[in-house]
């Protein structure tokens, strides 16, 4: 029997159910925040970037209100928050847009992540070299997260993701 795919309406129904179960009301702020994530798959903004984008869209939200809303969306499983080792700010993303587990390219301008092919021989060679270096130093690597940072084609060309 072929695997059943989850349709967009089913995903929307799941999210609506999560929002109801968490007791979140469908406020303008909530709808504006969700619309931003829906309109920019892979976007992983900070609280400040979200506040700026909401203001640009004509839907300014008080900083504390936005912080509380984001925390509630995370608690409801509608958003995920993470921080990178070199950052102090939390970043938020939709669960389906989770950071790649394999090698990836992250744009330092827009923070969109672009997964690289996991079966790429050169990426595997880099990971193996890192493991060997760590082993020579007496360490045991559990995993190697390979991330290349730079500027994506859209940001270099002045195009917008959202």
UniProtKB/TrEMBL annotation:
Cofactor(s) required for function per UniProt: Zn(2+)
UniProt keywords, alphabetically: Metal-binding, Zinc
Bound cofactor: record note: Binds 1 zinc ion per subunit.
Superkingdom of the organism of origin: Bacteria
Positions annotated to bind Zn(2+): 107, 110, 152, 155
GO molecular function, one term: transcription cis-regulatory region binding
GO biological process: negative regulation of DNA-templated transcription; regulation of secondary metabolite biosynthetic process
Protein name (Swiss-Prot/TrEMBL): Fur family transcriptional regulator
